[in-house]
What does this fold into?
Amino acid sequence: MASPTLTITDNRTGKRYDLPIEHDAIRATDLAQIRVAPGEPGLVSYDPALINTAACKSKVSYIDGERGILRYRGYPIEELAEKSSFLETAYLIVKGELPTTSHFKMWQRNITMHTLVHESVRHFIEGFRYDAHPMGILIATVGALSTFYPEAKHVTDLESRRVQTRRLIGKMPTIAAFAYRHSRGLPYVYPDNDLSYTGNFLSMMFKMTELKYRPDPVLERALDVLFILHADHEQNCSTTTMRVIGSSLADPYSAVAGAAAALGGPRHGSANEEVVHMLHEIGSAERIPALIKQVKAGERRLMGFGHRVYKNYDPRARIIKQIAHEVFEVTGKNPLIDIALELERIALEDNYFVSRRLYPNVDFYSGIIYEAMGLPVAMFPVLFAIARTAGWMAQWAELVLDEEQKITRPKQLYLGYDERHYVPLDGRAEGGPREDAVPPGPL
Ligand code: SDX
It folds into this structure.
């Protein structure tokens, strides 16, 4: 077999270097030996947004973007969506194997016992304005949990990691539901441990004066499957954020708060919110061509389309599209689905999208279902965060235990001024553009 090496010739010096190839990758640090002369800086790899850089090794999720494949711990997402539950899938993602009956019962009990939050957390949430975005409440409140569990900073302690994982998976739905109830001026609904993980979330969201909330089984199952589909997705922006914060050995509550903050961006987990706003703005199929024209003119993005990895149909979007029809049987059809389907049809026949390999992603149809279920648009990224907490914790634990990992501290290509010297204030000439335009730049 040919040698698993990459031979590089530095044409500046004529020197050749053989770099080992492992897992279809070279180590960027192997480039550092390539320099024009002793004492000169060695080569670095420049990769803004880490588009072609593996920053870690992981065994949690596998994605084949060309073939539209997603597997959690080797299990195809389609099988888990059909046969598993979110809580079982969360066990698989966190522990690495599907649970036995006894282990699942213990896991279910361990999560259920952590659904309550300290009453001070409730008061903390009440401090937000009524119209505070629930994602902002979630981010702040999860971060605040680090002050309730100071022992969480012992990240190298297995039992501590296990307890914080149970607490976070257990408490995210409670915090999310409290944020929603706060925004509606409704009394908070406390966890009902008789219900399933997802049924309990729906109860905390929608229970009114009835003695016991009984979730519609079709909607409960649909949301549970949506949670499964959102549970992990290799090194996406928010998971990478989780790992970067974790690399400083910060506690997992602070890391999840940062990850949720990254998820909240419109390019990432808030895209589901932006899709519904976009579909409402379109209003009718007749107005789709006008939107497509704006997108092709570069004036806006087609939200819910495109993906860094999937250059084919996002397998999750395919499943979500099927779920929509099951949900509409109960809720009545969300008219946005017709606009979405027509928008997809037109886009996938348009070379602008086809040539850029832009297909519907996980966010394109999910919001339409959430809206049909009566969930407010602002809650959509919060639902994403509830599910993704399982993935964040699994990836964080991998990071903490990875002996190759250190604190994340990348290099840069410095293109700023060479050395220059301080000029006293009275020596600086007036004139030129206004202060808020000097220097012409980002701030
Ligand atoms: C999620 O990483 C993950 O796994 C994320 C996620 C997860 O589970 O964690 O899958 C969840 O975040 C899904 C993505 C949700 N975001 C959106 O739907 C927002 C709209 N999509 C885009 O902004 C974009 O597609 C990204 C952010 C998703 C991906 O961006 P990339 O990979 O950086 O691609 P790019 O911006 O370099 O675009 C490549 C080309 C460009 O055209 P040219 O400049 O080459 O002419 O495609 C165009 C872009 O303009 N393009 C789009 C587009 N997305 C990319 N054009 C119109 N509409 C879009 N949505």
Summary: The first helix runs from residue 77 to 83. Residues 293 and 299 are 9 Å apart (CA to CA).
